[in-house]
Structures are given as structure tokens and as C-alpha cells.
Amino acid sequence: MTSSRLITSAVLALTLFGAAACSGSDDSGATTPATAPATDAPIATETQPDTDAADATDAAEVSIAQSRFDPLEISVGVGGTVTFTNTDPFAHTVTAKDDSPQQFDSGNFGQDETFQVEFAEAGTFDYFCQIHPTMRASVIVG
Fold it and tell me: In the β-sheet with 59-65, what is the strand arrangement from edge to edge?
């Protein structure tokens, strides 16, 4: 038998074995009927809340290192909190631009210190470091 026929035969055997394994019953001994009985009653479905999406946007972190905000753009949901952590051995600020819909300013904060901002409304919030004005970044809320 050539190797391609051998491979084809092996794939066919695994496919048939897999199909047979899937058509059996579970360990409880119950079997699934081929068709469900007809009924006028609505079918109940369980809906799971989308907790991953909500949890992912409730809080975010921005690191300040090597005189840069990381990441440069971050997203949170309305009511979400962003925590800024300064890992540089010198002071920085986290200051909202003048035209920002929400004003915030950390003042000078040093190495290993944190500053938090809760964003109460949707929008884009640009901020910078007053000590190092070329350091700029954004929080997108919504």
C-alpha cells in the first residue's frame, strides 16, 4: 500500500470512529430522541450575562516607564477606572488636556506610586505629563 493510501485509510478510519463515538449516549444511560415532540409551548433558553466584556472594561492599567505611557490608548466602560503606575525613578503627572470632557490631574507622583481616575461618561480623554509634555496618551470610554 502506498503512503498516501495508508494515510487516506487512517483518516477514514478515524473519521468513522469519531462519528460512531459521537452518536452514542452519555454516561447517565439517557439517550437523545431523534426528534423532539411537537408542542406549542415556547422553548426556554438560558441566557448567560456577557461578564467577560463587562469585566474587561471595568478597570485598566497604564504603566509609566521610560518617560512613556503604556499603552498609548486604552479602553474602559463608562464608570471604569484606570490606574496609572509610575515605574520611572523620577516624577510624572497624569493631566487631562484642557479640552477634555473630564478634568483630572495627579500632581507630581514618584516611582512606584499610583493614581486612579474613574470615567463617568463616554468619550475620548486625552492626557499628558506636565513635566514631560511630549508624553501623551488617551483613554477611550464607552
Answer: 68-70, 59-65, 81-86, 114-118
C-alpha separations of 63 from 49, 67, 75, 85, 102 in Å: 31, 10, 14, 5, 21
Q: Residue 137 is part of which domain span?
A: 55-141
Proportion of the chain in helix, strand, coil states, percent, rounded to 5: 20, 30, 50
CA distance 131 to 24: 69
**How far is the C-alpha of 121 from the C-alpha of 142, rounded, in Å?**
8
In the block, cell 483630572 appears at 104
Measured in degrees and rounded to the nearest 5, phi and psi for residue 26 equal -80, 180
Report pLDDT digits (tens) over 89-127.
Answer: 999 999 999 999 899 999 999 999 999 999 999 999 999
Task: Report if residue 18 sits inside a domain.
Answer: no
The CATH number given to whatever domain includes residue 107 is 2.60.40.420
How many domains does the chain fold into? 1
**Residue 36 domain-assigned (yes or no):** no
The overall pTM is greater than 0.85:
no
Q: Is residue 123 a part of any domain in this protein?
A: yes
* Domain contains 60: yes
